[in-house]
């Protein structure tokens, strides 16, 4: 090759290094466009996975509650969600083993009693870092957390399924059956027509009315009310308690609680369950976006009284 044709490199001329401003602007613009397109999708997928994880946790708690009923013939009372982690009662059920069962003051702050159920602490905390709300049926002295049997209980009687069955034997017309297994063996679905047990649950989350009932103790047979309800308060955390005992009153990522979330909030007093009274039924319905007029992102799981008894018997 002719050396004269080779372009000599001038050692004093510096080649430009890096990107030009135009190139940098194009790269930044492309990154911004990709983020605009895919970040919302990523957030949606992440929240969907969190909701699936929350559902799985509720199902594990549900299984632990059924085992508890099988062993103790009652549901546990809730733990007190307002307690700090230094309290000796942290994670344990309150008012356990008494004739009257749970008390309303604890119900207002009720969370899963993970220690009583033999679960690790993390099992009772949802994917957003809050306690799972737990409410067994309590209505005055009538609940599923004291002693007794559902057979032969008159409609005007006070009865309670969460303390020992033996404690209720002296009550008039209470069956002498010793546990729910005997109840299932000797009772049928044709319960006394005036007895109503369990929470009322409605599927409409845009209003406080109780007109689309999915759990109804007023129906026949009268074991179709919910024995308990488990609630993860979702990504907006409305109405939950934290493991530090702090009530979440300010929702995350939304202007405020939807009407159904307000009903499901943890520190709401126990409901009467009267379907004719708006706001007296718990809510379990479809997910509503945070930007909607009535946001609802609670994840809810519940069992009817009969379902609890049947599942507990299967474990006998």
Would you mind describing this structure in some detail?
This protein is an alpha+beta fold and 316 residues long. Helix content is 25%, strand content 10%. It has a three-stranded antiparallel β-sheet. A three-stranded mixed β-sheet has the order 7-6-9. Strand 4 (138-139) and strand 5 (142-143) form a beta hairpin. Helix 1 packs across helix 5 (305-314) and helix 3 packs across helix 5. The longest helix has 52 residues, at 21-72.
The percent range for strand residues is 5-15%
Largest sheet: 3 strands, antiparallel
- Broad shape: elongated
In whole angstroms, the N-to-C terminal distance is 96 Å
Supply the number of helical segments: 5
Query: Can you write the helix and strand succession as a string?
Result: HEHEEEEHEEEHEEH
Q: What is the gyration radius calculated from CA atoms? A: 28 Å
Beta-strand segment tally: 10
What's the overall average pLDDT, rounded? 74
